[in-house]
Amino acid sequence: MSTVSKAMYMPLQLATSVAGGLIAGWVFNEIWQRVSPSDQEPPDPKDLNRSGREALGAAALQGLVFGLVRAGVSRASAHGYRAVTNESPE
Q1: Do the beta carbons of residue 77 and residue 16 sit within 8 Å?
Q2: How far is C-alpha 38 from the chain's CA centre?
Q3: How confident is the model at residue 1 (pLDDT cuts 50, 70, 90)?
Q4: What pLDDT digit, counting tens, does each position of 33-50 carry?
C-alpha cells in the first residue's frame, strides 16, 4: 500500500470505526430490550443491586455485539476501498 493510499484510507477507517461504534451501541440496546426480563437499562458492573449473572451476561452480550459489528464494518469498508482503488487496504 502506497503512502498516498494509506493517507486516503485513514479518514475512511476513522469514520467507519465511529459509525460502527454507534451502530453496535444501537444494536446492543435493541437486543437488550428483547432479552432483559425487565424494562431496565443494561446493568453497570458496579451496581450491586443487580445480579452478577445479569451484569456479566450483559457484558458478554455487549462484547459479542461490538466485536461482530466492528468486524463487519471493517470488512465492508475494506471491500469498498478495494472496489474504488483496486488496492488492498492492508
Answers
A1: yes
A2: 24
A3: low
A4: 888 877 778 888 888 888
